[in-house]
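forwarding from the other thread:

> can someone predict this with glutamine?

sure thing
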Amino acid sequence: MDPLKDSARAIARDVNARTTSAAEVAEALIPHVERVDAQLGAYLELTPELMREHARRVDARVAAGENLPLAGVPVAIKDNMCLTGTRTTAGSKILETFVAPYTATAVQRLLDAGALPIGKTNLDEFAMGSSGENSALGLTRNPYDLDRVPGGSSAGSASAVGGFEATLSLGSDTGGSIREPAAFCNVVGFKPTYGRVSRYGLIAFASSLDQIGPFARCVEDAALVYDVIAGKDPLDATSVDREVEPAAGALRDDLRGVRVGVVKEFTLDDLDAASRAVYEAAYADLERLGAELVDVTLPTAEYGLATYYLIAPAECSSNLARFDGVRYGLRVDGADVGEMYERTRAAGFGPEVKRRILIGTYALSSGYYDAYYLKAQKARTRIAEDFARAFERCDLIVSPAASSPAFRFNAKSDPVTMYLMDYYTIPGSLAGLPSLSVPCGAALPEDGTRPMPMGLQMTSPLFTERALLGYAHAYERATMHAEKLTPVA
Ligand code: GLN
């Protein structure tokens, strides 16, 4: 048993069988994480005492005869999710000193299932970004090349699992923030259907898109987390009251009879040659596993980015209005209340957050609402209809998870180049679909010295998470790409 490398399933099995204890897992992990994180910077805050306290609780519950699905499994939490008594910053100066007075439902469910909280992970400020570089509070590195970004916005959650600093982590995905960093960091990242997992205690970015999901080093572990966190929560009115079919024990090993949609508009032609070869091989592997590849079309997918960059900023401009220097975190005094608001928000928000607030406020303003926000909502409906039509011909849709493998720090200086990283993830987000990224190989970047991991995105119809995880499991077991790379940190 190696608590630093084992799967969540193996750790939980051993802790439940009492061949090891949660306390031993915690004591092995704490010094390891302190050492590795000096290089990776995945965490904004480590919580060793909380981890020990939970380990004691888990060991007592197991001794009393309970069997816990995540007994003694170390988890990291993206720092836009509340955990009582810990700082919850959203990677922003405006919340740098905010201490959460309650715990997010998804986090609470993990803890109730026996997981051990290692700490809170770094992110692009308010989850706005694709590289991690928009955090106002720290720099997170890619565990497979320290000179490259981990991806974003769930930068630390992906880096921690990819760098073996956590067995599991939680991230949030609004337009790709779980799938894209998962691809960059050689891990599985899974965004369930919108509404499947409670958003209670998640600091809101774009409420009609935000969804919590897991990072793990294998599909089965991601399924294990999904089974624990999914389901109706009375504290989140948008969480869906619909039965969750447990996925972890029911994953398939082949793709016989599965129709895999390859989207005409998601052409591989724009990728560099090495990346294209990785995806061509992945599609061929799917066929070898018994799948039938079918051509499908999403004619409105090309409007995905434009649509998202109206809807997400519009919702963010409204959600972030609450950070006013009165209720939470930072306050910079002024001559009157108006000046206090202005100074607080000017000092507290970073440039990307300000840009989104400005765009969103403009898109919602009277006179422009119909031209921008309403139009974007209509486009969103059309995109969802395109997916529904495509799924009449296939069971899942595959594509790259990101437009390129992890790039070097400061490589993308203008915002639009950064936004283009999410070209493949955003349409599915707008349609609310379950979607994941699974490691599918590695390519040596032209400016690189080490092969960088890449992710295959799989997307399926609403509420078909169990089937989706099954397809990914079959592909993963047959290819085992993640195990071919070793982190440098
Ligand atoms: N990169 C996208 C953005 O910046 C998506 C972020 C996310 O999914 N939270 O908005």
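The first helix runs from residue 8 to 17. thats all i got for now
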